[in-house]
Design brief:
This protein is α/β, with parallel strands linked by helices. Among the domains are: 89 residues, Winged helix-like DNA-binding domain superfamily/Winged helix DNA-binding domain (Arc Repressor Mutant, subunit A, Orthogonal Bundle); 101 residues, 3-Layer(aba) Sandwich (D-Maltodextrin-Binding Protein, domain 2). The chain has eleven helices and eleven strands. Strands 3, 4, 5, 6, 9, 10 and 11 form a seven-stranded mixed sheet that branches. The relative contact order is 0.14.
Length: 285
């Protein structure tokens, strides 16, 4: 039997090109997402998505079906929103996409408090890189995004901030500098560099008119970068919340001038009223 959940999963796969990402967005297994789309295809008697080669793409007929499904769900959500406004209650699911950072960790407690206060509104939280979260927001797969280094004009709700730090191998010539010395981005730009999250790190240097000229390794995640620095592969910069507590084999410096990673919530255009309920609750906290 086809239901709205089947259709929402179909749109999520079409928007993300991935059954696994669609499943994460809706809090189900990848197998369940695949079965839901297959059941739709069986009911309609036609293939809607080409699974191979990846990413998943809509067939010619699937493109028309997906467009119609989008209109249908928008109409349904509009009706539900009209009713919610009349009776003063909001329902539905709010998809919150986060880039891992200290502010995301700090949201855990207020989000749980919101869930307790508004059990009729489901919070679906998912995690990704800055580029992934930006894409989900643009595609409508996420209603709210928690993003680092967000321009003020995009911010709906400013959250926390944390300092960027430099990590260098213990045997590096910088080790001869006085304790308490801060390094500039200019000091670091020409050094052998271990790069994690380039979408966050490169702009730091670009805004200072600098370029990383000797990237020795590009790695997955801050901890991997810290490990490479410990092994002597190069220097790196990382947010304070991501710096491992164990500093054996490395030296940690502040930056001069001090640079901060500021996180904020950004809301997609046309988000439904339940999103407003979440934001109002968080602002009050």
């Amino acid at each position: 039997m086809m239901n709205l959940h089947h259709w929402r999963l179909l749109l999520a796969v079409a928007d993300t090109g991935s059954f696994s990402q669609a499943a994460r967005l809706h809090g189900v297994t990848t197998s369940a997402a695949s079965q839901a789309v297959s059941q739709l295809e069986q009911a309609l008697g036609s293939t809607l998505l080409n699974r191979e080669p990846r990413p998943a793409r809509a067939t010619a007929l699937g493109t028309d079906v997906i467009a119609g499904a989008r209109r249908m769900l928008e109409a349904f959500d509009g009706i539900r929103e009209q009713v919610a406004q009349r009776i003063g209650h909001h329902h539905g699911a709010v998809h919150l996409a986060c880039v891992p950072c200290a502010s995301a960790d700090a949201l855990a407690e207020p989000l749980q408090a919101f869930k307790d206060a508004y059990p009729q509104i489901e919070i679906v939280q998912l995690w990704g890189t800055t580029l992934e979260v930006e894409r989900w927001l643009a595609q409508g797969a996420a209603d709210i995004a928690l993003l680092p280094d967000t321009p003020l004009q995009r911010q709906t709700l400013a959250l926390g901030k944390e300092e960027w730090l430099a990590w260098v191998p213990a045997g590096h010539p910088f080790a001869r500098r006085d304790r308490g010395t801060r390094l500039s981005l200019g000091d670091l730009a020409g050094q052998p560099f271990v790069l994690a999250h380039p979408e966050q790190v490169r702009p730091l240097f670009e805004r200072a008119g600098l370029e990383l000229s000797d990237v020795r390794a590009t790695v997955e995640g801050w901890r991997a970068a810290a490990s490479q620095v410990r092994e002597g592969a190069g220097v790196t910069v990382l947010p304070a919340s991501e710096a491992p507590a164990d500093t054996n084999g490395v030296l940690q410096f502040g930056l001069a001038p001090a640079l901060q990673r500021r996180s904020a919530l950004v809301v997609r255009e046309g988000a439904h009223a339940a999103v407003g309920s979440v934001l109002a609750f968080l602002q009050a906290r």
